[in-house]
Each structure stands twice: as C-alpha cells, then as structure tokens.
C-alpha cells in the first residue's frame, strides 16, 4: 500500500503527514496529526461535528479527502483561542450561556459560528439558525446556542 | 437518610449559574470522548453485519479476511461462552448473532486489523452464507396468526395460550366498574393511535477501546452512561469476573438512555483477547441507526369517557409495543405513564410486549412514556374539542395531587402537576392571539424518576479544597450540580470543589446516569458525604480546642464553638484544619452509599403553537413553552437545558423522525440526511418555566428533570395540529404528506 505525502497548514502551523488515498481530512486531523477537536458524528456531511475551515471556507472535514489539504490552510477548534489560552468570545459565551450539554457538537458549532461572524458580524436570530442548520445538536434544542452566538456577536461588535 | 424537617431552604450556592467545570475542555476541543482514546499497539475493529432482516447463518468463512495483510483476529459467536440464560443470553445474542441473524444490521462476526481501513476491507472479505427467512417488523403484523415466528419459547408465564409466540409478555392492571363508569360519561371516545420507533440520535457514535488478557484481566475505555452496567454485562457475556474488568468512562457525547447497555464493547474485548493487543471499535452512523437500541414502536387503542363538566369517568387502553428481536419493550412504563396525570375512578389497561425483526430496543428518555402520553393526551384533547372545554381547565379538574391514588396503583407523595398547570394557564403564551393556519396545543406528562444504587466518595486536600468522586457519567452538566451541592453542604466556594467521574475500580456499584437519577441520587450521596466530612472537621477542631465535638458546629466553611459551655474560640476554617490533618489523625474523607428511593416524580405541562401550510402540509413550530416541576433547580441553566432538549426531541418525534423499514425488512433511512432530527432552523426559542415543589426525599428538594420533557410534545403538537387544521392525526410522525392527506380527506 503506497501512502501519500501531504504538506499542509493547521491553525497556522506547517505540518506534514502520510495517509492512505481514501482517508478524509477528518481522519488525518484526528489520527495522523492528533487534533481531536473535530468529531465524526456521521461521516456523510449531515451533522457538522467535523466542521473546519479550508482556506477560510467552512467545510465538513469528513467530506474532504486528506490529500486535498495539500498546500491549504486548515482551521480547527484548537486554533480558536489565542496563543496563551485567551478564549475566543464565542467560546466564552458558550460556557456562560450553558450552550453545551454533552459538548460533542460544540467544536463544530464554534467553528461554524466563527465563520458566520467573520462574514456577517450582526446576524439575526433567523440567520444564525439557518447558518447552523448543518450542525446538529441533540441536547440543547439550540436555544442557548443561538443566544450565545447573538451575545458573542454583540460583544465582538462593541470591541471592534 | 435526611428527615424532611432537616431539609434546607436558604441557599448560598444552590440556584446560581456558575460556569461548568468541564466547559473549558469542551469549548477548546480538549475533552476526550469515546473515539478520542488511543493505546500503544492498538488495533482497529470492524463488524460484519447481516444484510437480512431474518436469516439462518449457515456458514462463516473468514479465511480470505485472515489472509489480508494486517488482519490480526476474527471473532464469531464461537468465541463467546455458551450456556447463558435470560437477559444475559439476550445481550450475548444481540452483540453477536448465533444461529440466526434477527434484524438488518445484526452483528455476525468481527475483525481486528492494524488500521481502521484494513479492518473495514477485511470485514467485507468475511463470507457469510445465509438462508433468508420470512420476517416481520410491524407490531400489529407480528401478533397475527400467520406472522413468522422469531423465536419459540421467548414468552413468559403472563402470555395466555393461543397467542402468537412473538407476544412475549402480557400486562394488565386496573380498578373500578368500567361499564358503570363509561355509562356515567356524556361523551365516549374510541380511537387507535400509533407511534413509530425513533432513535436517541446522540451525535457521538458508540466507541470503545478494549484490552483483555488471557489471564482474564481487562481494561475498557468507552462512552457510556453507566460503566458498572457495562462491566456487569461484558463480564456475563464473556464469562469474566466482574472485578477483573476495569471500565473507565470517557466524556460522553449524548446518550439519552441509548448508552446504558452494550453493543461493541464485548466484541472489542473478545477481539483483544484473541489478538493479544488493545482493540478500538468506533461505530459509523449507519451502524448506530441500524444496530444500536432505538425505541419501541407502539399501536394503542384508547377508550375514554368524559362528563360535560370535564370530569374523566373512565379510561381503557390496549397497548401493543414491539421492542425488536428480544423481550423488553417498555410496555409497562407506557401503560403506567399514559394516565398518570389524572384521578380516574375506573381504569383498565392491557399491554403486550412483542418481538419483531428489528434491533433490540434500548431506553430513550422516559422510555415508553411518550407513546402512552401521545395516546392518552390526544384522546383527552379530542373530547375537550368535541365538548368545547378548555384543555387546561379539564386537566386541572382531573389532576392528581398529594394523596391521589395513581392510575397504576401507588399513592402520590407531594407532587407538582397542579402547579405546572396553574403556571401554564397564567403564562402569557396561553392567552396570546393565534395567526391564520395556526393552532395551539397543550399536554401534560409524567416520569417516575429513579434512585438506584449509588456510591460517592469525597476527600479533603491539604489546602482545604475538596474532590468528589462520583460514578454517574456527566451527560449534561452534572459535575457542576455535584460541585454546587458539595459547596453548599461544606460552606466552601464552588471553585474549591472538583468533581470527577471515576472508574469502576474506584467506587462500589453505581447505576448509570439514567432514570433522571444523577442529580437526585449522586447529589444526595454527595451531600451526605460532605456532612460526614463536616463532622470529622468539627472533631479535629474540637480536639484542638480541647472541647467535646458536640459543642462544635460546621458553618460557612468553618468549625465554630457552639452552645453555652463551648468556650470562646475563633472560627477554624477548612484550610487550617486540612493543613494539619496529617498530624491530627490523617486524611479526612467522606463516603456515602445507598439505594435511595425518595426520588420524586416530575410532572410537566407544555404549550405549543404551530402553523400548518395548507398547500404542503408542512408544520412549523412558532412558539413553545415548557413548564415543569424540578423540585429544586440546583443549576437552573442546565435544568432549562434539559427542558429545552426534551422538548426538541419530542418535536422531532412528533413531526419528522421515524424508522422506515422496506418490504425487505431493511432499514431505509440509516443516515442523518434521511433520519431527520430537528435542526436549528426548525425550532423557535423554547421558553421555560421552572416550577419548584420540593421533593421531600432529597435534602435540597431535588427531583430529576431529564426525562419528563420529552413526553408532552408528542400529544401537544398533535393537539395543535388539530386546532390549526381541524383534522386529528393519530399516527406519528405527522409528516407533511400525512397532514396534507388528512386535510384533503377532510375536504
């Protein structure tokens, strides 16, 4: 079995790994690079637990082949807090609003919400709900998640 | 156990909303869930599953799989011990098929290999020869005389002769003169209601990492709601001594009852024993949907009598539930919860547990209760609409209260149904105007809650901070609740407590986080362990002061002299006592273990507004309010979260979610795209009202809150659809095609 050699950038760090041509970006992040923040909930792009950004664009990493990361910039939940550990406002607001119960969907939702706020710093409740419609949460009923995103957006606008 | 008059009511920490202790790990991606665990030398397992709903297994040939480079072991049922009986046999048969595959997705063999990809490839190379057999997946069809027999001899003593062998249990209870009571009614409704099987839909698929040696000693890391249950089940399925298997729970990515049993765990252990290396198995989503434990489906006949003033005179129900290929459908719970909210003088309920060619059902949030509530609360609403009665007034008129004899027998202690109904009636939602094509529905619901085997240890550290060791995995913020209760009982800051969920080697048996028991039972044990510690701290202070321990009280985190002859000493804080404890008698710890049974039942009442598009039959939930009795909300934000999450799951069950089996007996929708759980854009904000009628069985008044909330949404939404459209949907889910067909049939 011949493995592929991939050079990529994850959360600003240059990394390289060997992988099978069938492996997904999610597999490579988790099994080759030890970045366990992205989760596999379905493997078919329906749940969003594996959400990452690829050159800034929100993707399901279970639907991207690991080899496609060659030369690209990958962003995961592990890169959201600043160096030194200061949390992103979304991360803080998720804790403050009790916007997670089991927490398995949280990394994907945080990455997706960050991508939303970068495009639209002042989203309505409806815009948040449609943007996050690809990220399943089975615990919360989304109420506190939507409130946390609204609150984080408001704080980020004030600080901007 | 605490007496009622010891119950505390003025709280410093209870009822506040501090950050959860595991929050930081969970927002940074550091929290370690089932699939995040690795071990040196680890192999990966994959499972070979039956493509047939019902088939005899003639031959399993693994030679091609074993010839693949990297494959280290293959196991079949031949690698498991024989001679098991009862539920142990059911579990073993379910995790690895024996003579027959009993449902689409049933495990028939498993492979361990050096990578997950090789294991998956190898699983495809295992050749299984099947003889397909006739199958049945519908509960009513499975009871008919011509239905294929899934297994002879599965029925217990309760099933009368002459019934189909697929009927494995019959239950009957009731009281009163039914004929006379129905004769007193001004209106009598007779109708049949159906609910489809749904799945808990936890986002984290089952995952485990197992290591089992030839010496019978094992280690298992897994995502589970209850690792002692996993230990006991794996030990019996594999013929191990329970104490030789240590089970450590990972963080758990949702469970809702579905992670209280075993599927892949004993298979990974068997593979590890055979390969001599650790083996990790992670399920795919389609494996989760095909081969874990969805709910039962139900078919229910209801007859209900009501007077013109809203008094319910009589209720009769026949409840048929299928729970897959093994006994265990929650028929009793469906029956007991159906009319649990009402005082009804005459009642007769008959229930059947039926086996079919579907996966073995598992618990799902108030198992059985939503089905019964759908039937009973829909029927009540039908009579209210027929007679022009207010549905909340009718519920208030018949509501059970302290001292009422429940429909299923026991007399209720202090309960809070009336309070939830009054709060719902007073809520602005109930009197808000409705728009065109909109309807409003209400319904109440009940769950028993549970105590269960519980063991908690607590220890004081040298700096006066405290660690709590609990055995109930934290599925929705319970470590925050335990820390709050420990802080309250010891009078120390919340931040000075660290609560850990520990492995099976660290405590005696704990039942899982199920039955809405964790905050009640582990919480009660935490408070009692803290009180033991407080007593020991007082003793150390008394020794130092040279006075009797009886003359010392524990208050605000300090030992204080108390009483006329105690003397005048400054309060001695926990940190001061802890710093010296090595010299004053050694470590200070507390422990409490019991099977507490003072769990108070929880009632809830929901109000929902929906809008139906008359062109498409699509239903939109436009407003939702949950009112539920929490007894005492320890961390209100997570109580609200339970209310909201339960409502969301109930909405999914009512409108979208169902197991769809084809005529071939195979599951047609084993992916999230087709098994559609509610997404963010499907739901409005979910308003919550926490009613607090303290539970006399808990020192701080806690009732479990996790499960009741999934029960009212099913009927509440059906009642709202009736209001919006004038048609009554008696079958779930109320999908757009079904609603449209009902509207069109109604003209």
Automatic annotation (TrEMBL), chain A:
Domain of life the protein comes from: Bacteria
Coiled-coil portions: none
Keywords for the protein's UniProt record, in alphabetical order: 2Fe-2S, Iron, Iron-sulfur, Metal-binding, Oxidoreductase
Regions that span the bilayer: none
Limits of the 2Fe-2S ferredoxin-type domain: 4-80
Stored Pfam families: Fer2 (PF00111), Fer2_2 (PF01799)
Any one Gene Ontology molecular-function term assigned to this protein's record: 2 iron, 2 sulfur cluster binding
Keyword ATP-binding: no
UniProt-recorded name of the protein: Carbon-monoxide dehydrogenase small subunit
Protein species of origin: Aliiruegeria haliotis
TrEMBL record, chain B:
Ranges where the Aldehyde oxidase/xanthine dehydrogenase a/b hammerhead domain occurs: 28-134
Keywords assigned by UniProt, alphabetized: Molybdenum, Oxidoreductase
Pfam families according to UniProt: Ald_Xan_dh_C (PF01315), MoCoBD_1 (PF02738), MoCoBD_2 (PF20256)
GO molecular function, one term: oxidoreductase activity
Superkingdom field: Bacteria
Presence of keyword Oxidoreductase: yes
Record SUPFAM superfamilies: CO dehydrogenase molybdoprotein N-domain-like, Molybdenum cofactor-binding domain
Presence of keyword Oxidoreductase: yes
Full protein name: Xanthine dehydrogenase molybdenum binding subunit apoprotein
Species annotation: Aliiruegeria haliotis
Native organism taxonomy: Bacteria, Pseudomonadati, Pseudomonadota, Alphaproteobacteria, Rhodobacterales
